[in-house]
Specification:
heterodimer, A: mainly alpha, 3 domains, four-stranded antiparallel sheet, 16 helices, globular, B: Ribosomal Protein L9, domain 1
Amino acid sequence: MEDKELDFALRYPFTDVARKAIASTELTESIAYLAVERIRRSLEGDMRALVSFRGSDKEEAIASFAASRMILGYLRNSFLTSRFAVNEAKIAHGWLDKADEKEVDAVAAIFGILTTPTKEKGRMLITLPIYLRYSPRSVDYRITNRRLVSGMVEITYHEKKRLAEEAVKKHVERIPLVKDPPELIKNAAEKLLESLPKTQPGMSGNALASGAKVEDHPPCVEKLMESMRKHENLNHQARYFLATYLMAIGMNDEGIVQLFSDAPDFKERTTKYQVAQIRKRAYSVPSCATTLTYGLCCAVCRIGSPLNWHTLGKERKGYIKQQVIGSSGSVMMATTENKKEGAVIDEGDAKSVEEADT
Amino acid sequence: MDENDRRLMTKLFSSYYGQAELGVLGIEQREFGVGFSRKIESRHLAFAHPSELRNYLMNNTPFFVSHSISYYEHPSATPMEKKIWKGADLVFDLDLHAEGKYGAYMLLDKVKSDLSRLVTDFIKGDFGCTDVMLAFSGNRGYHVHVRDKEFRTLGGEERRELVDYIMGNGLNYRDFFSESGDKKTITKLHGPNPEEGGYRGRFAKMTLKALGDDPGSIHKSLKEEKTRNVFVRSIMDGNWSTSPVKKNSELIERLAPIAKSLPVASVDTDAGVTQDLSKLIRVPNSIHGDTGLIAKVFDASGLEGFEPLRDALMPTNQELKVKFIEDVPELPLRGEATGPFKKDEEKRLNLAVAAFYVLKGSATILKGDAK
């Protein structure tokens, strides 16, 4: 393989070019070691890419990505997988920022992100389904305020790279189960687990100063906390909303930081600082209208502010939760992680079809 | 509904299914659900071929039959994850809510303008979909099935984004505008032009309409033709600086009622139906067990002329005598004013019309008349 191609594979180890580059590379201790390091670095949010100069080093570095995926496929730990995917996507974005247009196009095209230029410089069109699939769930990317004609959405060159980053993340986090990996991978997985801190991510305590129970929140908050538990990556607005809400109901900074430790790109220092800033500036909890704008509202509570949830009676809360949009779950959500969800879908759908088929 | 009524209704449904056109796209990949007294009593059913479905409906004759909006590799497998999801149609449900048992039927015509906007402006215009099927729900609304392959693999969240778009959730028309020039010079206000698609173009068109219909609602000087024409011409080019309103920010605020009217004129679709990938939706052209009306498929071009209470009744010239067990209002059934009927009134009616009242629980078949 030519040096140019090898360098491309090194920068984007999730591509077919990378796969070809290591087609004849044997798994070695050195590759397994690099793979563990690669995952460990993603836990630290270390976005520096592996830099190698010699051809064989480059191949090892590329192979470490594949070996990392084998380790994660064997461990089946959604937290590690999410952190790994987010970090690899950010590394790829770093390269894309430095790359020329041809390289950006080549990487984006792998995920079907194809664009056609508009008359306006720096602006381009992308098909709506691809845009929806890879645009971050943030208010800036909502299609409501975008130019949208005949199934084509207008984006900027910078946004194209952001879409590609999201596509890399989604691609990397889809790791197939590896039931019986080579011994080298098993050993590497054990080493990785041994080196992890022994704390359990998640919330501590179950009562808050305000008297609100930890498990009793409006549906929008519950949905976000569920996403956190699944180590899904929440956008900025969602995190801000969650932090202000938890603060308002009396959770201390430590508890909030602890909760955010489930985020795939968690950085303790940054989170502590941001939570402290929110408290210092006494930011208020976004209203229901604002959460709707953020795309975070998922129920028809009619309470004006999420905080008013705690003034509702038990019966009213139960009724609202029954009506939550998508409460019956979806096939996409019914992963093997929670087999109970299948049953929920069955019960929920008998209800939902009644609503639908009037 | 007593046993006698149920027996006759079952016979009627079975006879209909003997000749009904039940074209379910990708039938072998769909999960089916049926119910005899409510919408879904049993699901995870699958049919490899349309004739299998027809035989099932003729022999078992459920009062309700639905299919998954999703396509699966193994549609009858349980639990859900074993079905192996392959994609899903994009389905929108327009539902009417009105007071009383018969209140919604009087409003079915009104929802047609929303349906027309949903299909023409949003689904075909903005989303660029081409494979769109419309069906009456069989009761109080309409279903839109979008079967374009590019949209099939969208997840629930992505579908929610489309519903939010249609409903105008998160719409901030102020973002449509930008200024150029500095404060010392004249600041030019750039905005949408009517040639643009999506909400931007719609906003420009609505503003032009307001300038035509009631220009004083924006600014009193716009009542003057010359001033108005200058503003109209510049909006056509996306230049909003020529209005008589001095401050750009003030003009933008004055346009707020127009922006507000965009979502109101939009479609209040049922987000849950569109977003939930495990949803079952009534089989097009099957009968709704609560009304006896057909969930009739119709062409978008024929929307204007489609009248559910005339066109979605089972085709029959037979008649049946029923006795009303409650008062019912007048309704335009089969294209003619029918009723009102009083409690205990006995009436010989077209079989499909009689079935409608019996299934609604407003009448019972007179013994001796049921064959």
